[in-house]
Amino acid sequence: MAIPIPTDSFKVGFIGAGKMAESIARGVVNSCVLPASRISTAHSELHRREAFSSFGVQIYDRNEQVVENSDVVIFSVKPQVVQKVVSQLKPLLTEKKLLVSVAAGIKLSDLQEWAGHGRFIRVMPNTPAAVGEAASVMSLGDTATKEDGDLIAELFGAVGRIWRADEKHFDAVTGLSGSGPAYIFLAIEAMADGGVAAGLPRDLALGLASQTVLGAASMVIKSGKHPGQLKDDVASPGGTTIAGIHELERGGFRGILMNTVVAAANRSREFSKR
């Protein structure tokens, strides 16, 4: 029987102290959902320890210490080593602990088998958690309760938006939102380079490209309009925008983006088959 977690004093531990764990932890602290004193992790490398300690997170020497001092344990390690790490910690992973995995491509059924119980929640976040703009999706394991789900929704909701979905969609989620920030970073860089090629100073070009992407995304979310309609609204007959769109279409822009998401989703499926 799962023991309810005290929502006013629970502690979160990260197994794995990489960039994703840092993004989530930093975002949670910045949003004031949890003080840094109630978050912990462990790592052997000095630069990763310093990254977390710089905003007050407790640093341990061993993963076992993290688990022992946490109510919620978030596995944020590479997919290739999840089984090894969970299996090593299994004696400490009682059903008193709510377990969470953010590892791409690793199924709940496998996670539950390795841990020895089903109080597991799978979450696919992305790195904009560090600035409070994550896009996350969650799916509950066999014995995770509604209250468990609400707690994780609050935790990850504090660093962006979170959706609940059937686990069968997670490979596609990984390909779209999990890997998606990298696609947008590349687009911003390319747009800025285009501005420089057209004669703009580098700083101005990068600022304009970044703010344009942010503004366009905000319009889609806040207006409720389909992006195709918003595109049509700005593309005047014979104007500059339609000339640029024509070039994108000639280069297969939409097809390339679609193929990019599918390629990343297929890679996630490869992880789940191992």
Automatic annotation (TrEMBL):
Top-level taxonomic group: Eukaryota
Residue ranges annotated for the Pyrroline-5-carboxylate reductase dimerisation domain, each copy included: 167-270
Keywords assigned: Amino-acid biosynthesis, Cytoplasm, NADP, Oxidoreductase, Proline biosynthesis
Pfam family of the protein (one): F420_oxidored
Enzyme Commission number(s) of this protein: 1.5.1.2
Catalyses which reaction(s): L-proline + NAD(+) = (S)-1-pyrroline-5-carboxylate + NADH + 2 H(+); L-proline + NADP(+) = (S)-1-pyrroline-5-carboxylate + NADPH + 2 H(+)
Pathway(s) of this molecule: Amino-acid biosynthesis; L-proline biosynthesis; L-proline from L-glutamate 5-semialdehyde: step 1/1
GO biological process: L-proline biosynthetic process
GO molecular-function terms, A-Z: pyrroline-5-carboxylate reductase activity
Subcellular location per the Swiss-Prot or TrEMBL entry: Cytoplasm
Gene Ontology, cellular component aspect: cytoplasm
Family assignment from sequence similarity: Belongs to the pyrroline-5-carboxylate reductase family.
Protein name in UniProt: Pyrroline-5-carboxylate reductase
Provenance organism: Aquilegia coerulea
Lineage: Eukaryota, Viridiplantae, Streptophyta, Embryophyta, Tracheophyta
